[in-house]
Amino acid sequence: MNHNPSTTEYHQPLTLSGLQELIDKMYSQKDEARGIDGTFMWLMEEIGELAAALREGPSENLAKEFADVLAWLVTIANVANVDLEQAVMDKYGNGCPGCKKMICVCDSAEKP
Ligand SMILES: [Zn+2]
Fold it and tell me: Cα(20) to centroid of ligand 1, in Å?
């Protein structure tokens, strides 16, 4: 990740790379200490909270739970040294990984 100690705020629009840098800047020391296993446990806890919020229906809390899940996923990518924007572009940038179309035509029974 690129660090710029003089920059303390993030400028919109937020990109996936920008989010990854933002989370890295805020939490990298704690995240490195916690490691992938501990961070994965936090992601699973947040996914449980998102499930509960979805079950409750629309609320102020729902959007925050999505933000938490995304932030913890980004955190694990940071600890594992994965460039998420590159990974997403490599996998989905040229269409569905299954059928290679921009509008998926895979059979409904298949995963994509
Ligand atoms: Zn497809």
Answer: 27
